Task: structure prediction
Amino acid sequence: MNVPASPSPKFAPTAAVPDATASLSAENGVLMFAYTPALPLGYLNAYSIQQVRTGQPIAGVQMQRNAVETLLTAPSRVLHQLQAQSTLFPAPADAADHTFRHVSERAFDWASNEGLLYCKTIGIMSHKALAIMQRIPHPIPLHMFEGISQLNMEAKRQGYYVLMFAHFDDEDDAVRFRDVTSELFDVAVCEPDPLSHAAFSIRSSTAESGLLVGPQDIMVQVGVEDGRHNFLTEAFIAAQISDRVMLKMRRDGDSLAQIGVVMELNKSSVKRRLDKMHPLPPAKGDDGWRKTYASLLDLPPRRNRLFDIPG
Result:
């Protein structure tokens, strides 16, 4: 008996696989940068605005290139100071414009009806990203959730960013705004490396959710050269110099005992601290990091054991 051949199975065309290493794109709406009083706001403000003006990512989130207008609610003299200070942070020649608009001599609540109306009007008229400063007291007033949610939806609808630099009285309150903003960035002070003036870390709420794997957090170091400030962005390792050094020494193959000699700790203490941190991937050659800390610590050369101590 002849059995008819089975028809060949039809497969759907293979969909293009997105690049897992590519940065996510930030949606229009409120991009909140949550910080506490210890943070040097001027540096965070200048760095974030520069990334938007040049269309570069912030903590794994790709920014759309936009001109930025800072809305200032402070005495007029502060406006002139900020305009002068902005020249200390030179942007690339292809960066979009950055302008300032003096809104009020008094503190402003951008989550109020007045603030919402002003942002809506200026955002539509200027076709720019808006940068504003907002204080979030503790306990959080109820109108702030609704107000910031409305501002986020309006900015999404009209197609622009609102960079909100939010000063939290209680840092634990920031996570409560994750669902009413397009993006929430958690910003914290770090100990700067030698020759750097300041340092801070930025973590995206998307990474904090645990949905993504791989390094997303960054540390931004602020340096000064010829009177001009510059930013060095790198993957976040640890907030304290001592922790960064221990992780890098361990990555390079230094023993717990060798690390302990440098850090003046016993092996058990070194191990406990390292166990609390994520190990670093292997280095691609000698990146010269030991020279950075030579003025602070007596570090042995890479792969050259000065101490013959097992462990």
In short: The longest strand covers residues 129-136. Residues 6-18, 304-310 have pLDDT under 50 and may be disordered. The two ends are 75 Å apart (CA to CA).
